[in-house]
Amino acid sequence: MDYPKSIPGVGLVNGGFVDENPIAGSPGSLIPAAWGNSVTQEILNAIKAAGLTPDEARTDQLATAIGALVDFTKLKNTPTTLAGYGITDAVGRLLAVRQIETVGITVYKPNPRAKRIRVRLVGAGGSGGGCAPVTAGYHSIGGGGGGGAYAESLYDVTPEMMAGVPVSLGAGGASRNSMGQAGGGASFGSYMSASGGMGGQILTFPVTATAVGFVQGGAGGQAVTGGNLANARGIGGGYAMYNANWGVLAGGGGASPFDGGGPLIGVNGAGTSGNRGSGGSGSCSTSASASVLSGVGGNAFCEIWEYE
């Protein structure tokens, strides 16, 4: 329903009806029969939908019809929980988010009020390929370390879990001046496990006016089991690249669900570390006297969301 804007000569002002103004000599708006009938019919439809009989002498029937058609009691008492809508198989209120990142074994015990837990687990990242001192006229480049594999599950909390679940987290691959080192795996008791990413490779080559070189990063973690929401292999580390025309970049570390990985590095720059399962970046070097080390892989990581 709207004002009769489409009917010519109605005389709307600013979109609405106006009265005649004899002093100013301006006419009032016209109310077309078709529009007046439409408004009346809109009101009658609502009255009839509520089961009422239209009565010309009454002025409260529209309000009565709205009250009959809309259950204001329910609107005022809208449920605030899923159970209030009859949904019983659902995770309740979030109690806490627990994060475990200590390398080794940590025994996790759920909050006594927790009924379900969401567990996110990632293996450790591999380190990038690093550079030992190189012969004059040569260049060395290293690929990025791979990210760890990722598993995720939603569990009902059991008495066995309440007694404690051992969470085992491996260390990220160590900084190297050679091919990168693989990261360690991770496990959430016997429920889930995720392997670590592999270390980045290295390439040493003579620098010439037309030299081009590239070497791949480490593969992402491949073995992952037990996730009932996700079992994802890790993301591989980036390629290291050299071109005599535009320069050199070491490979970036493979990302994890919790970190983007060690960023790309230029010439004679040490690699940067990964974090929470991501790979460390490689390094690149023209130094004949010193090693240029790669970035460390991020340690394995576990995050647990506890729900009532």
Write a short abstract of this structure.
Helix content is 11%, strand content 23%. It is an alpha+beta fold and 308 residues long.
Q: Please, could you describe this protein's structure?
A:
This protein is α+β, with helices and mostly antiparallel strands and 308 residues long. It has 2 domains: 33-76, no CATH class; 94-307, no CATH class. It is built from 4 helices and 16 strands. It has helices spanning 33-49, 61-69, 72-76, 159-162; strands at residues 94-100, 104-108, 116-122, 138-142, 150-156, 165-169, 186-188, 192-194, 202-206, 212-215, 224-225, 230-232, 240-243, 247-249, 284-285, 301-307. It has a 5-stranded antiparallel sheet with strand order 1-16-3-5-12, with no helix packed on it. Strands 2-6-7-8-11 form a 5-stranded antiparallel sheet. The protein has a 3-stranded antiparallel sheet with strand order 9-4-15, with no helix packed on it. Helix 1 packs across helix 2. The chain starts with 32 loop residues before the first helix and ends with a strand.
